[in-house]
Write a structure and sequence with these properties.
Blueprint (H helix, E strand, L loop, with lengths): L2 H4 L22 E11 L1 H12 L2 H5 L3 E4 L9 E6 L6 E11 L8 E9 L5 E11 L4 E12 L2 H5 L1 H24 L5
Antiparallel strand pairs: 1-7, 2-3, 3-4, 4-5, 5-6, 6-7
Length: about 180
């Protein structure tokens, strides 16, 4: 039994795990953002470690409370957007993970997580870094979502603007990881 099958009813959206294949259920808004981060296995490994260690969320300005220091299938994480009592919790569960391979190119690493009850949206988001056969390192962020209730649906323009803003912060976080010194 897979982790996706162990939690029936927890996910309130169709197509659990769809970001792994790059698809989205019908009727859901979707996002695909890609950014070139540099070249070489060192860059790839730094970004992969940052993605799998929740660093993109932190560098995007989100608070992160996870039950695992690293993204693993089934891990729960609550990101927070906002400040103090105005922080909006966003609970998610990891639905798939790709670990970096020991060597060789091309390859990719990252994870996808799905929203849980209490999240302002219903859907999934994934963060993946890829190194291609030319040694170029790319970040790929995929998401599909719809508002979780009428309140968030009413704020459609604001919700979409917030998603674009956080996605741009993820990209900046990945660029900063790529630019850092060698991994220890």
């Amino acid at each position: 039994m897979t982790d996706k099958e162990q939690a029936p009813g927890k996910f309130a959206y169709p197509g659990v795990g769809s970001t792994e294949q790059g698809t989205a259920p019908e009727g859901y808004g979707h996002v695909l953002e890609e950014a070139r981060l540099g070249t070489g296995l060192d860059v790839y490994r730094r970004v992969a470690d940052g993605i799998l260690g929740w660093e993109l969320q932190r560098r995007a300005g989100l608070s992160v409370k996870a039950d695992s220091p690293r993204a693993v299938p089934g891990a729960h994480v609550v990101s927070g957007f906002g400040v103090g009592p105005f922080r909006l919790p966003a609970p998610c569960q990891v639905v798939w993970v790709h670990e970096p391979a020991a060597g060789g190119v091309p390859q990719s690493a990252g994870f996808g997580y799905g929203t849980l009850p209490g999240h302002p949206a219903r859907g999934e988001e994934s963060f993946e870094v890829e190194i291609n056969s030319r040694g170029e390192v790319w970040l790929r962020i995929r998401a599909f979502s719809r508002p979780a209730n009428w309140f968030y649906a009413a704020g459609g323009l604001v919700t979409r603007a917030a998603q674009r803003y956080v996605t741009s912060r993820y990209i900046e976080g990945a660029r900063s990881l790529a630019a850092e010194g060698k991994s220890e």
